[in-house]
Every structure is written in structure tokens, then in C-alpha cells.
Amino acid sequence: MKPEVLESAIAPPERSNIGIPALYTQPQKLDPAPRSGKDYSIRYADNWTEISRECKRLNNYKCCYSGCCQKSTQTHHALYFDKLGSIAGREIAGVHIFPLCDQHHDEAHSKSNWVRSHSNPVLNNRNTTRFYLNLRQGWQGR
Fold this sequence. Notes:
Shape: globular
Strand order of the largest sheet: 1-4
Helix content: 25-40%
Strand content: 5-15%
Order of helices and strands: HHHEEEEHEEH
Number of helices: 5
Radius of gyration: 14 Å
Largest sheet: 2 strands, antiparallel
Oligomer: single chain
């Protein structure tokens, strides 16, 4: 993926009527059926390594948790599914995915910051709105 493709795709997400990103806060009512049990590979496109590397580069290899200055070591999916379906292969840095240090990636998946879906844990797990907005703020302040 060319750097300008991801960079040009960075834009504020659609807004709901209360000012919170609609792509993030409007979970799908009808969950897609996971393939043969829990196939987590559908979360990632074949070029995930390239997408992840580019996401980190766009934030100067820094963690984008608001106020953190550590090096980004991981690329975090704040969600795996939006109103168009699985985001695998069409992730937008700063909207769907964020570069994080190890500490903040662990925090992103903690019980207080991660919403688990029992109906479809493969695609409908996501960060809480509060944590997501912190990531957006850190990204926008880059």
C-alpha cells in the first residue's frame, strides 16, 4: 500500500447526531456469522504487515495514546467491523487502527477499555468510546 493512500484516507469519521463517531458507536445489529467457529484470521488482510508498518510511520513511530511519548511497537484495531462490514484490508490509520506501545496496547485490551461481544467475538469486539476518543485525540495531536 502506498503511503499516500493511507495518509489521504485519514479523515474524521462520520458523526452521529450527538457528535460521537458514528462508525465507531453504531455496532451492527446483525452480526455476520463467523467462519467455522472462531476464525480470527478474518480480522487481518494479507497485507496486514504493510498496513501496520505504514500506520506506525504516519505517527512517526510513536504511541498515539494521548500524552504518551514511547515508541509504537504494535498496531491496535479499535474495532474490526463497521457499517460496511469487516474492515480487514481497508483500515484507516487514526480511525480504525492506532500505533501503540506495549503498555497502552495491553491497556487497550483491558476489561475497562475493551467491549467483548458474546454473539460475535471475532468481529464485534471493540474499544469503549472513552478509550477510542483518547486514541483519536492522541492521533490528531501528532
